[in-house]
Write a structure and sequence with these properties.
The structure holds two protein chains of two kinds. The two termini of chain A are 16 Å apart. Chain A is of the alpha/beta class. Chain A has a seven-stranded mixed beta sheet with strand order 5-6-7-3-8-9-14, with helices on both faces. A four-stranded antiparallel beta sheet of chain A has the order 11-12-10-13, with helices on one face. In chain A, strand 6, helix 6 and strand 7 form a beta-alpha-beta unit. Chain A is built from eleven helices and 14 strands. In chain A, helix 3 packs across helix 5 and helix 9 packs across helix 10. By secondary structure, chain B is an all-alpha fold. Chain B has a domain of 162 residues. Chain B has eleven helices and no strands. The two termini of chain B are 29 Å apart. Classes of the chains: A alpha/beta, B mainly alpha. At the A-B interface, strand 5, helix 2, helix 3, helix 5 and helix 6 of A face helix 1, helix 2 and helix 4 of B.
């Protein structure tokens, strides 16, 4: 459980994070989505007590991160996979974390296995690792303490498609066991695959929050009939917004069942009736974080 | 790399979470980890090895010239100059590598009480320094043994306990100073240059100012700390001078460095 309340960070006159509030529930993978520079990393550093907040607060498992006793055992954190001493071996990085948190050193092997790093890879210096291997090592050090919460900044960065698939399974599994996961990304496809809840941030503000499916579903119905003109008239009389599409058919701001009912009452024969296509996360993202959207509408989707 | 299917070990599996009975990371654990961090990279090991090698080289030169007739204490004094120059750098690296290698992000999420981490670095660095002191005194003893055995030097095992304690104290000061400058400046080159040049410049400039000669021993650690390195007894005034100079050159930078570490934002860039 992560609770973020009115978190704000100012650097001089610039506002990096502006009154951000959201909660990350256990049992879910929550994606933290936003373009570069939107304030994702700053928010995550504030959650982890690394960056002092200008105002507002963040709690992890009910406490400020810095008040957790031995936080490595309760919260697995990966904020930058590159932030490892290039001269240490992968195994040494995990050994240091195990010594610090008091984790049984046998767990190092279990964890290396879990993230798919072989003994030979673990014996190499981190400086020789690819970005994907660093991400795996970073995930290993986050998972080492058998935590209840994972906070991961761009963990899929540098992973190949198989690696992303693997990470999705890992995080799904973690969440299914009651774990809390917050991960950030600017890569929408990844997020669409990995997260089931989403918080979208743009220019330091939360612009949307909710279940991925709810956010992606576009309200409305697509309908095609033998007489679109008559159907459109009937629907408009019923008070629904109707748009006649150039490619044929109507886009209606109503549920499919209501459109069907209107068609039946008007005696129009339907050729096709379905809920409007769900838009991709990409569309949603661009729409919500568009630069010209000065007055960003805050879209709340109840979970 | 194998793409293993995630299994049980993915965590969050226990129904009984340990949260409540987890104890904070102890200072002893922190110190041990910080000490290990000074030795588990090639850079760290080489730094210590270089000091040992330079010390051995100095001793070898002493054994070769002037018929090698030096007492044990003369050999020990010979080893102190490389130590005085290089030991603070070990302390500097212990602190600055957190920033130059960006590990601060990990270190301070595993232990958010940053001042404790800084102090653990000081204690860990002192551990390295004292271990090295044992090695160099051992090398000095070996050198004296060799000149006595092979070059007919007069045996003179004249190193007092006091001299060794003085050396140990100077190691403590060097290390605390190194970590202090490292935490304060966060950049390895900046910290090393400042550490090596500032006291020298201070001494030179101070020497030019009329009337400074009397004040200098009170504010220059090089002058005030000299007896520690060469084993001459410190009197009351000597200790007082050492105290004030230490306050300026060791305590102040260390306090500043710890303050900066505790207050500042830890980020990866």
């Amino acid at each position: 459980m992560i609770t973020v309340e009115h978190l704000t960070k100012r650097y001089g006159p610039a506002v990096a994070v502006d009154d951000v509030s959201f909660t990350v529930e256990p049992g879910h993978v929550t994606g933290f989505l936003g373009p570069n520079g939107a304030g994702k990393s700053t928010t995550m550093r504030m959650i982890c007590g690394l960056t002092p907040a200008t105002s507002g607060s963040a709690r992890v498992l009910g406490l400020p991160f810095t008040a957790l006793a031995n936080p490595g055992r309760r919260v697995g954190v990966l904020l930058d996979a590159g932030a490892q001493h290039s001269g240490r071996t992968g195994r040494e990085v995990l050994t240091l974390a195990a010594l610090m948190t008091g984790v049984d050193r046998r767990r190092i092997d279990t964890t290396l296995d879990l993230v798919g790093l072989t003994d030979r890879e673990a014996a190499r210096r981190v400086g020789q690792y690819s970005l994907g291997m660093r991400q795996r090592l970073g995930l290993a050090s986050a998972l080492l303490g058998d935590p209840e919460v994972l906070i991961l900044d761009e963990p899929a960065n540098g992973l190949d498609p198989a690696g992303i698939r693997w990470m999705r399974d890992l995080l799904d599994d973690f969440a299914r066991r009651g774990g809390t996961v917050l991960l950030s990304s600017h890569l929408l496809r990844e997020m669409e695959a990995v997260a089931d809840r989403i918080v979208v941030i743009g220019r330091g503000r939360v612009v949307a929050e909710g279940h991925k499916d709810d956010l992606l579903r576009q309200a409305g119905t697509f309908v095609r009939s033998t007489d679109d003109g008559a159907l459109a008239l009937a629907l408009r009389q019923g008070g629904a917004g109707v748009e006649e599409l150039a490619t044929g058919g109507l886009s209606v701001e109503a549920e499919p069942v209501d459109v069907g009912r209107a068609a039946a009452a008007a005696g129009v024969v339907l050729a096709e009736l379905r809920a409007a296509d769900s838009r991709g996360l990409e569309d949603l993202f661009l729409e919500l974080t568009a630069d010209d959207a000065r007055e960003q509408t805050r879209m709340e989707v109840s979970a | 790399m194998t793409t293993a299917t995630p299994t049980r070990a993915a965590g969050a599996s226990r129904t009984n979470r340990p949260g409540a009975d987890l104890r904070p990371v102890s200072f002893a654990t922190l110190t041990l980890v910080e000490w290990r961090k000074q030795l588990d990279t090639r850079a760290g090991r080489w730094m210590l090895a270089v000091i040992a090698i330079i010390t051995a080289a100095v001793l070898a030169v002493m054994m070769a010239v002037n018929g090698g007739n030096h007492s044990f204490s003369a050999f020990v004094v010979g080893t102190t100059t490389p130590m005085a120059m290089l030991l603070p750098i070990v302390g500097v690296l212990a602190a600055t590598s957190e920033w130059s290698q960006r590990t601060a992000l990990v270190t301070f999420t595993l232990e958010p009480r940053r001042t404790r981490v800084g102090l653990a670095k000081v204690v860990g660095a002192i551990g390295s320094g004292l271990a090295l002191l044992v090695v160099t005194v051992g090398l000095a003893a070996l050198a004296h043994l060799l000149v006595v055995a092979f070059r007919d030097a007069d045996p003179a095992w004249d190193v007092s306990v006091r001299a060794v304690l003085y050396l140990a104290l100077s190691v403590v000061l060097f290390m605390a100073q190194g970590v202090g400058f490292g935490l304060l400046l966060r950049s390895t080159p900046a910290a090393i240059v400042t550490l090596l040049l500032a006291p020298t410049l201070f001494g030179v400039v101070g020497g030019l100012v009329p009337g400074m000669a009397d004040v200098l021993p009170w504010i220059d650690l090089g002058t005030a700390g000299e007896p520690l390195l060469f084993g001459s007894a410190l009197d009351g005034q000597g200790w007082a001078q050492l105290g004030t100079a230490t306050l300026i050159w060791v305590v102040a930078p260390l306090a500043g460095g710890l303050w900066r570490t505790a207050r500042s934002e830890i980020s990866s860039s």
